[in-house]
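Incident log, support desk, overnight shift.

02:14 A customer reports that sequence design results differ from what the structure should imply. Their input is reproduced verbatim below. On-call engineer (initials T.W.) acknowledged and began investigating.
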């Protein structure tokens, strides 16, 4: 039987689809004549159904990329029929589709390199060593709560919030196996810390990366939302810490040794990040080009190391690209589906309509704050991509605001971010949608505090 939060989500999406089908967009100032077509309304309904299937991934066993890719193809086919009916030539449609491809290719290449490096570092036992150090030190529940949260905040700025959530989450679960209350609160703290830490770094959150690659904010300018991001983590953490159990967990003896070249791989990853930043800042080149150059250094290093290994050594047969697990490829293909779905809806005119409704009707401040809350229910990636496609006239302060809100807004509900979804999968029933929802009010305090701090220090 479905739990209550699934009923909530089904109701929400059916309501959105019903409103769309009952609406008349043709007279709206920012709309398009194509939006009034029945097929255009059908496109919106198809997108809502596809996203419902994404939410039901664990129930159905259907990977989230499959409904999104199918919907992307279907939406563009319908969009091309509508465009033809309104006199648009095939070249105009191809140009719109190619624009989507350019944006996806930049994101794909950047993320592919980052994921390959993360997987190589993971295989070299770097993250396992970090976990063993934390588990074996004998910290109290209070100490472990703050230590894991702080590490998650800063690590997610480099290693992305999903990887960080899995690493730190396993530590929380391992040391709190005798205290379900600590596991629940510790996992919530980890999700909040990961999302907050990823918000101020293009390497920590996909939405921040999108804003950087779109040229809306320079790399170093994202540091302006470091303090607001930190506040959005510290406020709920301070409240949750009051309710932690007393005492210390049982110390677990874990012995982990780094594999050969682990430190070198960490250095190469750091150098690749630096190369991507300098390429964009100094030479004006897209960041993915610096990342691809860094990948070539890793590939060259692998070649030199493997030459000295015997043919029977397993590492000799290892391929860098085989390190990308099925889940990562599914995520990358999910991005493709989302970007093409949103692109098709934008081509018809929905994004222009939504931009007028939010940014012209209510102003950038309210629109960006609401968009961050929407990302708590709908993953922040399509929310941010839609805003970038709308391209509202905003200054740097507002682009930093939506970056902050989209990053930390996903913490309000466990389904609002990849970090929360991943920890629900490994939380062994102690960290669930409802256990997270009980603390949503406290997390909203952090959301508001982070936004208020942004206005205080950056306006």
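02:41 Re-run completed on a clean worker. Output:
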């Amino acid at each position: 039987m479905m739990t209550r939060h699934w009923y909530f989500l089904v109701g929400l999406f059916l309501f959105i689809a019903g409103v769309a089908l009952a609406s008349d967009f043709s007279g709206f100032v920012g709309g398009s004549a194509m939006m009034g077509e029945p097929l255009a309304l059908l496109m919106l309904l198809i997108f809502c159904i596809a996203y419902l299937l994404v939410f039901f991934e664990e129930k159905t066993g259907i990977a989230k990329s499959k409904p999104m890719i199918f919907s992307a193809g279907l939406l563009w086919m319908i969009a091309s029929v509508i465009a033809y009916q309104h006199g648009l030539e095939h070249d105009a449609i191809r140009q719109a589709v190619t624009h989507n491809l350019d944006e996806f290719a930049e994101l794909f290449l950047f993320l592919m390199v980052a994921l390959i490096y993360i997987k190589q570092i993971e295989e070299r036992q770097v993250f396992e060593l970090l976990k063993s150090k934390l588990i074996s030190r004998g910290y109290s529940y209070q100490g472990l709560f703050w230590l894991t949260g702080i590490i998650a905040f800063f690590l997610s700025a480099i290693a992305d919030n999903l990887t960080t959530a899995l690493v730190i989450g396993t530590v929380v679960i391992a040391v709190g196996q005798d205290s379900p209350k600590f596991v629940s609160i510790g996992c919530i703290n980890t999700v909040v810390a990961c999302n907050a830490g990823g918000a101020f770094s293009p390497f920590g959150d996909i939405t921040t990366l999108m804003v950087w690659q779109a040229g809306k904010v320079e790399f170093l300018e994202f540091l302006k939302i470091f303090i607001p991001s930190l506040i959005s983590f510290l406020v709920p953490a301070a409240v949750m810490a009051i309710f932690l159990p007393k005492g210390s967990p049982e110390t677990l003896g874990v012995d982990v040794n780094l594999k050969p070249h682990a430190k070198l791989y960490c250095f190469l990853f750091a150098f690749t990040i630096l190369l991507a930043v300098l390429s964009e800042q100094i030479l004006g080149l897209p960041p993915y080009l610096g990342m691809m150059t860094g990948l070539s250094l890793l590939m060259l290093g692998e070649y030199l190391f493997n030459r000295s290994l015997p043919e029977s050594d397993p590492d000799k047969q290892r391929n860098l690209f085989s390190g990308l697990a099925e889940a990562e490829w599914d995520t990358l293909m999910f991005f493709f589906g989302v970007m093409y779905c949103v692109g098709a809806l934008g081509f018809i005119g929905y994004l222009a309509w939504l931009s007028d409704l939010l940014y012209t009707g209510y102003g950038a401040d309210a629109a960006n704050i609401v968009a961050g809350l929407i990302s708590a229910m709908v993953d922040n990636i399509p929310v941010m991509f839609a805003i970038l496609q709308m391209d509202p006239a905003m200054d740097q302060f507002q682009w930093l605001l939506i970056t902050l809100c989209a990053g930390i807004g996903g913490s309000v509900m466990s389904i609002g971010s990849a970090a929360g979804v991943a920890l629900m999968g490994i939380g062994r029933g102690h960290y669930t949608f409802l256990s997270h929802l009980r603390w949503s009010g406290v997390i909203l305090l952090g959301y508001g505090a982070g936004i208020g701090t942004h206005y205080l220090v950056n306006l």
